[in-house]
Amino acid sequence: PLDSQTRKLRLARVGISPVEFDRKKDELASALHVYVDEVRENRSQGTIDFVYGREPMPKEFIPGTYTAIGSNKFLVGITRSKKFVADLRDTPHLLVAGQTGGGKSTFLRQFITSLFLNNASHEFFLIDLKGGLEFQLFEKLDRVKVFGNVEHSAYMLGGMAKEIQTRMALLKEKQCKDIQQYLAKVKEEGGSARLTRKIIVVDEAAELFLAGGQASSGDVQSARRILSQIARQGRSLGIHLVIATQRPDSRALDPQIKANLPGVLCFQMVNDVSSISVLGTGRATDLPPVPGRGIWKNSLDFVEVQ
Questions:
Q1: Can you say whether residue 33 is alpha, beta or left, with left for phi > 0 and alpha for psi between -120 and 50 degrees?
Q2: What CA–CA distance (Å, rounded) separates 93 from 300?
Q3: Which of 80, 115, 145, 205 is most exposed, with minimal Cβ within 10 Å?
Q4: How many C-beta neighbours within 10 Å does residue 197 have?
Q5: Residue 77: what are its φ and ψ, rounded to 5°?
Q6: Can you tell me the distance from the alpha carbon of 293 to that of 284, in angstroms, rounded to the nearest whole number?
Q7: For residues 131 and 139, is the Cβ–Cβ distance under 8 A?
Q8: CB–CB of 254/224 below 8 Å?
Q9: How far is CA 297 from the centre of its chain?
C-alpha cells in the first residue's frame, strides 16, 4: 500500500520487455479489476512496478467554483473518491515542493484565489523572486502586495516581525490565547477587530535563503530569522506562511522553518533523496508524471491527490 487508496505491485520481469508490460497494461488492469496509473521499470533490479487503485485517478481537477469552500479554507485536490479541503486554522503553514512543471505554481495561485475570494479581510504578501511573473495576476488587487526582489521582501518581513510583537501584546491585553478567541470576543462585545489574518507566500525559497545573486548575506539571515519566527509563533497570531521550493535540501530551506510547517504538498520528485527530504519517505518518486499529481501530508497521513 502507498496510501489508503493506492497500491504498488512489484513483478519480476523474467525476460519480458518493459514495452510488452506497457502494451498489456489495460489487459492486466482488466483482469485484476483495477486501474493502473503507471508501469515503471527498475532496470538494475530486473523488476516492473505497477502503481494502481480500485478507482480511476483523475488526471486533472478544475474547480467549478471557489466561493462554496467556506472561510479560511482552501482546496488541496481530489483523490480517487473524494475532494480534500484544508483549513488554515488547523493547517496554518504549508510547504509546497516539486520540480518545474509539476503543478507547484498552479497550486499556489488557486490557494491564493480561494482564500482571497472567501475572506474579505485577509491580506496577502506574495514573494516572487522570478521576476514577479508567477503572481502578476494578483498585483492590482486590494489586500495583495507582490514583492519581486530580495531587498523589498526583507523590508516587508522586517515589518512583519514588528507586527508579531504588536499582536502578542494585543492578545495579552485582551486575555486571549489566539486570534480565533480574540475575534470571537470582539464580535461578542460588538466592537471592530484590529487584527486580520495575514498570509505570506514565498515562491522559490532558495532565491531568498541563499546568499549571492540577488540576496546579500544580511538579507538572507534576516529573512531566515523572521520566517522561522513566523513558523513558530504565527499560528496563534493569525500570520500564515507558505513556502514553495524546487530544492528541499537544508541549504535552500531552513530545517527549523521546515519543521514548523505542518501541511506538506509534494509533487513528483526526481529521486528518493529529494522526496525523503520533504516527506520523510520516497513516496513522491512513485508518482506518475502527471502535472498536478502530488502527495498531501498532514500530520502522519499521506494521500495522493490531483
A1: left
A2: 16
A3: 145
A4: 22
A5: 155, -170
A6: 9
A7: no
A8: yes
A9: 9
SS3 assignment, position 268: coil
Distances in Å between the alpha carbon of 249 and those of 141, 159, 166? 34, 28, 33
Contact 129, 294 (CB under 8 A): no
Partners of 50 in the β-ladder: 9, 39
Please write the tens of the pLDDT for every residue from 246-298.
877 767 777 888 889 999 999 999 888 889 989 988 889 888 889 999 999 98
Question: Half-sphere exposure of residue 213, counting CA atoms within 13 Å on the CB side?
Answer: 11
Kindly report the pTM of this predicted structure: 0.85
> Is residue 243 within a helix (H) or strand (E), and if so which, with residue range?
strand 239-245
- State pLDDT tens for residues 228-241: 999 999 999 999 99
Q: How far is CA 172 from the centre of its chain?
A: 31
Picking from 68, 71, 86, the residue whose alpha carbon sits closest to that of residue 95 is 86
DSSP state of 150: H
Residue 143, number of CB atoms within 10 A of its CB? 16
Residues 6+ apart with CB under 8 A from 7: 1, 51, 52, 53
